[in-house]
Amino acid sequence: MHDVVIVGAGPVGLFLACELGLAGCSVLVLEKESEQESPWREEPLGTRGLFGHSVGAFYRRGLLDELVAACFVLDGRGVRVDADEPSRPRLVGHFAGMMLDSDKIDMAALPFRLPNPAEGLMMISLQALESLLSERAAKLGVDIRRGVTVDAVTQDEDHVVVSAGQVGFEARWAVGCDGGRSTVRSLTGFAFTGTEPQLTGYTVIGTFDDPEKLRPGITLTPTGMYVRMAAEGHIAMMDFDGGAFDRSLPPSRDHLQTVLRRVSGTDVTLSDVRLASTFTDRAKQATTYRQGRVLLAGDAAHIHSPLGGQGLNTGIGDAVNLGWKLAATVRGHAPDGLLDTYGQERHPIGARVLDWSRAQVSIMKPDRHSQAIQGVVRDLLGTRDGTTYVFERLSGSSIRYPLGGAHPLTGRDAPEFRLGDGTYLGELMRDGRGVVLDFSADQRLSGPAAGWGSRLRHVAGAPEDDLGLGAVLVRPDGTVAWADGPDFAVDAFEREVSRWFGRPRA
Fold first, then answer.
1. Angle between helical axes of 368-381 and 340-364 (0-180°, round to 10)
2. Which residue, of 74, 108, 256, 506, is most buried by count of CB atoms within 10 Å of its CB?
3. How far is CA 55 from the centre of its chain?
4. b/e sequence 474-489, b meaning 16+ C-beta within 10 Å
5. How many CA atoms lie within 13 A of 149 on its CB side?
6. Are 494 and 501 within 8 A, CB to CB?
């Protein structure tokens, strides 16, 4: 019996598998696709963006160098930047096709920010990301089996059986990371509710007789939006047809050309189509992320339009939040109710992302009311405060879990404190343990923290900038569980560490 069976070997399932493997859990990953390689995962079709919150997760596990090596950057129009053009403005995100100006972002206004080695938006293909995580998972002893199609999930109080044909895989827990049309979600009976689509989106690789008629990068038009990518012949577009063409037959060349001409307002000619797919802005979410011993993460738990590039990032956030909690539950030292905090913390984040997507779709609609709102938003994005607000939402800087506690840092991503010896906080978290930073002159937490030695790393010493704090307790997912000033009480620390890390060892 495995500790955990994960269904789905995409980035979310693989990141979760790595977190569990790092904690010493026995993990089996089942993936229906026989081959990892696919044009839908490679550039340009498989290109995705990783914002700061997600990049930080890789950094805290010692994967930043590998990630940077596999990534690339885009300029402010969404066009790939070559190495010999370092001065061009970098892409930092967009809202409903309206590009953010990096010069208007007030970094000093972001909450509790310190200089961070893992900053900025990074572009990567799903193929490269999955390869990186697959290699990491293998080193941690994770068993990945491809070409396995799950068709049944049963559970009782003690275990789960995930079946593929006549073969059953038994585990203590199962997690569905198998995408927007999740088999695990359907078989287990999770309710999946939300809103129906307003548009059909298209992604196309083809040949254009007159590509110069299409602007590079993201172009918002009175009838929709199109994105001309850096790769030759790669274009995406959104047509407000109520989602009428979604999940129908593969779109023909004539249909794609008609839609593109309508959306772009040009008479561009699409002479050949090599690959094409459709998507919508359907926005739905599982009403709960847990049913007994089965959990959901990533697109299996929530789907929405790709506007703003939040899908992959939200899924990575799910995996980071769930991984250490499920591992602690498997290992037997989780405090009561720890696993339930996964849904309590992540479900509101997913709902917020769905509304973020809906808001963008609403102001892109080809009617005068939506376009009037679009004009107001464009004016707001022309201001420093407006751009900073949108960037804060996109980057994940605005995420704050309602953990209680008086200090405003509690529930947020931990600032990247740098100790006197030059070590960053992120470097101290590579083994997946929590960290308590003890800035007190008398190192007053060295004794109390020892009781959680296998689960918690105690680090004492003054950092370059302590932000006025005396001590900080950081969960394995990088979230501040407790923080206080120089006059902090030891018993307050002990209450919070027990809340998140269970009872101290005897």
1. 110
2. 74
3. 9
4. bbbbbbbbbbbeeebe
5. 4
6. no
Q: Please state, rounded to an integer, the average pLDDT across all residues of the chain.
A: 92
| β-strand pairing of 152-155 with 270-280 | unpaired
Write down the pLDDT at residue 268.
Answer: 95
Q: How far apart are CA 441 and CA 498, in angstroms?
A: 24
pLDDT digits (tens, 9 = 90+) for 172-193: 999 999 999 999 999 999 999 9
The single residue listed with the structure tokens 């040949």 is 207
Task: Name the burial class of residue 52, with classes exposed (0-12), middle (13-18) and buried (19+) by CB atoms within 10 angstroms of its CB.
Answer: buried
Q: Rounded to whole angstroms, how far apart are CA atoms 12 and 25?
A: 17
The span from the CA of 383 to the CA of 423, in Å, is 37
Max alpha carbon distance in the chain (Å)? 75
Sign of CA dihedral 114, 11, 182, 476: negative
Instruction: Answer whether 483's CB lies under 8 Å from 405's CB.
Output: yes
Pairwise CA distance, residues 33 & 479, whole Å: 34
Please name the amino acid found at residue 73. V
Question: Which residue did the predictor score with more confidence, 102 or 173?
Answer: 173
Which spans in 332-450 are helix H? 340-364, 368-381, 384-395, 446-449
Q: Dig out the tokens for 356 from the structure.
A: 């973020």
Retrieve residue 167's tokens. 């073969």
- In the structure encoding, which two tokens stand for residue 499, read together? 């809340």
Q: For 378-423, how does the pLDDT look when each residue is reduced to its tens digit (9 = 90+)?
A: 999 999 999 999 999 999 999 999 999 889 999 999 999 999 999 9
Residue 78: pLDDT over 70: no
Residue pair 356/310 in contact (Cβ under 8 Å)? The answer is yes
Taking 80 as the threshold, does the pLDDT of residue 351 lie above it?
yes
**One-letter amino acid identity for 282?**
R
241-254: average pLDDT: 86
Do 170 and 159 meet the contact criterion of CB atoms below 8 Å apart? yes
Are β-strands 98-99 and 94-95 bridged in parallel, bridged antiparallel, or unpaired?
antiparallel
Share of the chain above pLDDT 70, in %: 96
> Which amino acid is present at 220?
L
Round to whole Å and give the CA distance between 162 and 425.
38
State the pTM of this model: 0.95
Rg of the Cα atoms in the chain: 23
Q: Does residue 44 have a cis bond before it (omega within 30 degrees)?
A: yes
* 82: confidence class by pLDDT, cuts 50, 70, 90: low
pLDDT digits (tens, 9 = 90+) for 157-172: 999 999 999 999 999 9
Q: Among 229, 206, 224, 216, which Cα is nearest to 264's?
A: 224
pLDDT band, residue 197 (cuts 50/70/90): very high
Residue holding tokens 């206004």? 109
